Amino acid sequence: MSAAPVPLAPGLVHVPGYLDQADQAALLDAIHALLKAAPPFTPRMPRTGKPFSVRMSNCGPLGWVSDERGYRYQPTHPETGAPWPPMPDAVLSAWGDLGGYARPPEACLINIYDEKARMGLHQDRDEADLDAPVVSLSLGDTGVFRFGATARRGPTRTIRLASGDALVLGGPSRLVFHGVDRVIPGSSALPALEKQRINLTLRRVTTGA
Q1: 193: closest CA among 156, 140, 148, 128?
Q2: Is residue 93 helix, strand or coil?
Q3: What span, in angstroms and rounded, lies between the C-alpha atoms of 165 and 11?
């Protein structure tokens, strides 16, 4: 059973242990199956082409990609050209439990961190529907998550997101700057996932029904 939700700021909520050990293992199996259909790729920064330190994939009707042409959502894998596989039931359930939003998610970004990967401070603002929250689930090694305000400059703080934790960014915190400072190697409570962190980020992209 998960611990009580921890409000970090208006609309920003940490839910420690949202997924128990069995649910984590089942979700990891589902992710491994997804990654066979949609292999991880290395996104690149717009204009410069500099590679990200994380590898990525997606599931759902749309997937987030980044390359020299910019950030965008598209219905197909950037390397295979195949449609993204459907989202697992577990992530759809998480959206229903935590998102509090009537429309379903359209994209589930799968970020794969090794022990050297990082994610700089950024906003999730490539979506047309900014009323919808962002819901994330963590598996594997603990990530040191940094967040601030909706302006890039200003104070920030960190929390640790362990395997099974959930995080919701919504309401006034929908556009807070956030990132991952580092991954703590060997901290995974999930035996099948060592020296790696997987983060699933659920998003509603369009404003349609």
Answers
A1: 140
A2: helix
A3: 17
What is the rounded distance in angstroms from the CA atom of residue 29 to the CA atom of residue 36? 11
Cα dihedral: 83, 89, 94, 95 (round 10): 50
Instruction: Enter the tokens of residue 73.
Output: 């959502």
Give the tens place of pLDDT for each residue, 26-43.
Answer: 999 999 999 999 999 999
- 3-state SS class at 189: coil
Q: What's the alpha-carbon Rg for the chain, to the nearest Å?
A: 16
Residue 169: strand pairing partners: 12, 134
What predicted TM-score, i.e. pTM, was given to this entire model?
Answer: 0.95
Q: What is the pLDDT of residues 68-96, one digit of tens each?
A: 999 999 999 999 999 999 999 999 999 99
Helix (H, G, I), strand (E, B) or coil at 96: helix
